Every structure is written in structure tokens, then in C-alpha cells.
Amino acid sequence: MKRSRVLLLIPLFLAALALSDAGNAYGRSEAFKGNIYETGKLKPVDSVLRVKVGDTAPDFTLPAISGERVTLSQYRGKKHVVISFVPAAWTPVCSDQWPGYAILEDLFIEHDAVLLGITVDNIPTLFAWTNQMGKIWFPVLSDFWPHGKVADSFGVLRSDGTAERAIIIIDTEGIIRYINVNDINKRPFLESIVEELEKLGR
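The structure assignment produced for this chain is given below.
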């Protein structure tokens, strides 16, 4: 899927999310009815980064809901890596955010990149939550135990034990090229991921 087409689809997807009364927003759809925990407004950012752009990303190995174990360094020399940290399963913004990456799958393939979704929830919780979303095409990893160790290594573990809503992009050499610790109450802009992948492809 070409970049121009992806950028055209992004506003359409965001508009669909806004139509909660029509049941089109994932986190507020019939599929999630009665299952979403309303967190209320949270402190936008509650952590201090331990890494910066230009650093080598801390390596890690985490279990995935597929049953495999995924190691960051397995992509070294092969794929760019986009890490999407989200705070918690069964919460409104998180339940909208990951389904939104469906329109980016072809762009990731085109740019030799992989997306890794990480939360501090355990595997059974993540399995049930992502099944409720429908098809999630990227690996979903559990940073449950030791609790939040990977999030903490990047400096995105909040004081309540959840992760920040953060996007970290790592190139094929294992170097961090982009960091966005987003307001936890809002979805990160999809356009930013598109733009950063385009930069890595130049």
C-alpha cells in the first residue's frame, strides 16, 4: 500500500473512531460492550526516559500470545522495529489504538519493518483482549514478569506499574531513531509512524 493511500485512510479511520454512538469505535463497539474499564483522565506522562535517540536499544525477550518468545535482537540486520507500549488491556484508548494499525500492515512490509505491541498484562489477559479486537497482525508481547522490566529499561514504566503510551522506533542496527512518549489519554498520531518509516527507507 503506497504512502499516499495510507495517509488518505488515516483520517477516515479516525473519523470512524469518533462515531461511538454508531458503534464504530473499537473500544466502544458491541464487541467490547460492558468489558471496557473507564480509567478517567490520567496524568499525561508519569516516567523519566532512560534512553534517547541515537542509543542502542536495550535488548529483551518476552513471551507472545502466539506461544513464541520474541527477542528484539532477532531482528538485527533484518528489520526495523516499531515498539508500541500501551498501558493496559480492556481500557478505552488502548482498545482503539492497536486495531488502528491494521491500515499500516502493508506499509510495514514495504519498509522491512515489524511492529511489536507490549503491555504489562499477563498472557491470558492479552489473549482474551486481542481476540475481542479481531485480527491483530503483529506480535503482542507480555511484560508481566518480572513486572514491567522491559518498559522500565526504556524508562516508560509509570509509578502505578503500567506502561506509558509510547512509540519507539529502532533501525536494523539496533539504534533508537524515534521516541514519542505520548499523553496517555490520547492515541499517538498514525502519521508519525508513517513519516518515520519513510525516513528509514531513504
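Interim note for the steering committee: The longest strand covers residues 113-119. DSSP finds six helices and seven strands in the chain.
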